[in-house]
């Protein structure tokens, strides 16, 4: 894998990708805010609740929600694996969005510990998924209490790669930024004038200490996103390798991740009777 290839270099050498990041983020913002406002109204709900982690996806989503409706609510749900900086950034962001009186901070450690004890496990991945699903339960409890929707924070890169917990952070009512790749979400965050340390922060679900998305993927989103973009355009592996100058095995690995996680993006299969 050629880790020296930057996203900028990929963009310059590939005219087919010239519009990949060059979106009109003002128009994107207006569209998403209006779409979210209409979706909440058409659902018959009064507003929306979103989990704020201190990362770029939740920061952008929370900002869009606060512009779409005055009836917004923020949940900050740290655990023992949440970096202190993330908690501080989540608190700062919600205050920046005039949400100091529209937020609840809940440590989920005791809940996660109880679930883990029932299952009798300390497996890092299982406990991590319990954390994600605990947050989903709390979001839906608050949403039901207020007659709100649960607003999801997943982006297109995570959704395509399956980099989310099924019925955890994937358990939501709507995904406003679900058609934006991670690199595009960062650009949108810049446009929205979010704090630079949130925009530039390495993505991480923080389900265990030291976890980073790009560390698990083994490559940066600046390289992954153009591959996903071309896969979605129906390009073949060799064609993508030629266009982007990346390793063929990397392209195949990304394609495999997309294919194997397909079930996570679909509703449960219903076996139709013959």
Automatic annotation (TrEMBL):
It comes from the Archaea. The keyword Ligase applies. InterPro entries: NAD/GMP_synthase (IPR022310), NAD_synthase (IPR003694), NH(3)-dep_NAD(+)_synth (IPR022926), Rossmann-like_a/b/a_fold (IPR014729). Gene3D superfamilies: HUPs (3.40.50.620). Deamido-NAD(+) binds at residues 133, 166, 173, 263-264. GO terms for cellular component: cytoplasm. It catalyses: deamido-NAD(+) + NH4(+) + ATP = AMP + diphosphate + NAD(+) + H(+). CDD domains: NAD_synthase. GO terms for molecular function: ATP binding; glutaminase activity; metal ion binding; NAD+ synthase (glutamine-hydrolyzing) activity; NAD+ synthase activity. Its EC number is 6.3.1.5. ATP binds at residues 51-58, 153, 182, 204. Pfam families: NAD_synthase. Residues 30-268 form the NAD/GMP synthase domain. HAMAP family: NadE_ammonia_dep. Homodimer. Belongs to the NAD synthetase family. This is NH(3)-dependent NAD(+) synthetase. It comes from Metallosphaera sedula.
